[in-house]
Write a structure and sequence with these properties.
Layout lengths: L1 E6 L6 H8 L4 E7 L2 H8 L5 E5 L5 H10 L2 E4 L6 H11 L2 E4 L5 H4 L2 H7 L2 E3 L8 H15 L3 E13 L16 H6 L5 E5 L2 E5 L9 E5 L3 E7 L5 H5 L7 E8 L3 H10 L16 H9 L7 H9 L6 H9 L13 H12 L8 E13 L3 E12 L7 H18 L7 E3 L4 H13 L4 E7 L1
Parallel strand pairs: 1-2, 1-4, 2-3, 4-5, 5-6, 6-15, 7-12
Antiparallel strand pairs: 7-13, 8-9, 10-11, 11-12, 13-14, 14-16
Helix pairs in contact: 1-15, 3-4, 7-16, 10-13, 11-12, 15-16
Amino acid sequence: MKKILILGAGLVSEPGVKYLLEQKNFIVTVAALNVDKAEALTADRQNGKAVFLDVENRKQLRELIRENDIVVSLLPWTYHTVVAELCLEYSKHMVTASYVSDAMRSFDSRAKEKEVLFLNELGLDPGIDHMSAMKIIDEVKKRGGKVLHFYSYCGGLPAPQHNNNPFGYKFSWSPRGVILASRNDSRFLEDGEEIYIEGKDLFLNYDTEEINELGIFEVYPNRNSLPYKQLYGLNDALTVKRGTYRNPGWCSTLKKIVDLGLIDDTPRSGLTEKTFKELLSDLLGVSRSSDLRKEVASKSGLEPEDAILDRLEWLGLFSDTSVPRKDNYLDILCEQMQSKMMYAKGEIDMVIMRHTFVIEEEEETIYKVTSTLIDYGIPEGESSMARTVSLPLAIGVKLIAEERINSTGVQIPNTPDIYLPILSELESLGIKIVEEKTEI
């Protein structure tokens, strides 16, 4: 029997935990600070158990890792290095859905010496994006072709029938993580030119893309795309660009929220005694008795009837409602957004991922390939975000447990021995990627 330890029982954990509990010869332990959530995930399963875990209790964490064979960290990424050190101490495999940090990368040689695998970036984005892209790239190379341009876009959004708030967005994971993405600088390669966009200007630099059955979406650059030229072996590519999908209006609205100073997480005293109107008036340096909508319009260069102001007003930023009990603007904003922009019972989410390749093959034949994933949550059940993040993770754990992956060290799922079986299993679970070829 293989013993699997899941650290964390958050929003995306359920589908992956259920998948592992359904496998033969697995004993699954879910360890979480919220033990009620862990117990709900393992209820009525003889091969599952839940335990309380405060990750700061290193003695308990050490003992849990020592007792198991494969460790899955669904903890915040800042804890991954702590878990990794203990996995190295006891020669345990480790799996995460998080980006490989410099600290995680530094474990590579030690993991190889211990003959253990630290498999990271095994979720949706990063995760399925790597696997579906590498499948096509490797096929093109086998035919002697070249990828000239590569675009990779992804987003988690409300399903069209439940896209019913002015922001066109609802949270299926941490609001803080979503909003903090607005701080990220961006780098990408486009038509042979390296482009750099400072975080404060991120939302000024978006494109639009139409997906036939769903309509038009905004897409803004996602972090640093430049390493993917080497990571994916795109030696001939003139364009390597990754981005994030949002519904129309998101980028212009988030840009104004950034400009207003509402994503500042500097601790401040006296914020919780204020209403939203007072907080924003004080932040802008205007009278609390003024017409706040007009003041924001003036300072933001907007007409008073602009839809951006409608969104801010709907969010409650001009209201006499008391702000949440937080000590910084960012957390106040996130808590307010979460209260207004969560999925109601019965509503479902949607994940869109699309790679676009411009490919050159023999005799200078150039054509386009799109690889598209459109997935929906299950009514009254699991969200698409949870399924597409945690199922690749769980399938990867199964492959490791069955000794079907020979790699060791710090890895991501960009090799055929990993991506082919995971993509195949995902398709059997209803998460299907559609590839289409178009002559240019």
